[in-house]
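Before the break, one more example. Copy the sequence into your notebook; we will annotate it together after we see the structure.
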Amino acid sequence: MKFNILKNFDKSCYFSYPYPHFVIRNAIDLDLYKNLEKEYLVIENYFQQQKAFKKNNVRMQFNQLDLDHLNLDIPNWREFLIYHSSETHFKNMQQIFESDLNKIYPGLSEQISKNSENFKHFCQPAINTPVNKKTTVLMPHLDRYDTLFTGLFYLKNDNDNSKGGDFEIYESKKENYFYRKAEVSNLNSIKKFKTVKYEKNTFVGLLNTKNSIHSVSKRSKTNLPRRLVNFISKVPPNLSPLYSTQKDTNYVRILKNKIRDSFVLGR
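Here is what the structure looks like once it is written out:
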């Protein structure tokens, strides 16, 4: 397979703390990346035709299951999406995370070996729409409870001089409380540990755990979309939720968070 996002992975890319993750720079060979970059113009054009494109800094995406009815002329992306939503790619991700996976989710690797066809995978070309008001799309949060692996591939436009849109990794200093869709409510419980810049041809992968808190930094004003591909592997219903979280019951704090979000997220 020519479009293997994990081809250039090595152990120096991998980190177990504050939760298992890896960062691959120059993930796709340059000639292949240029082919993907050229075809992404077709994907961008598709998103530009949708009403949501006029909204400020929101996510728009589709996945490999949408390819046939979208009828987009993107043969390289078709190959890319089909492979990266396959069992082969899933098993490669499993192999990378194997040691930490066995520590955090004992017995899950055995479940994968026995019933790998019950795990679902999605590869999703996406954008965050242009920014006319500095905002972020995501506060510190966890991914959904049925998500095992997540990946983000960045394709920043060479003409994009805007700041932000970076992937932020957090460590927990004390017990976390959550609200909405697994967003951290007591932000004094976490501390920013690492920032992965929104840069072309960069791939970030992570194992979703109760500690896998991450966010996207605020983006400055720009007429250009933030280009990315989202990778998700989900466990079958009998294995979900993978973990539990503590729901925040401090209603004053929740109200303050909602007021803050109306400005920071533009909700």
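The first strand starts at residue 14 and ends at 15. Residues 18 and 228 are 24 Å apart (CA to CA). Try to locate both features in your own notes.
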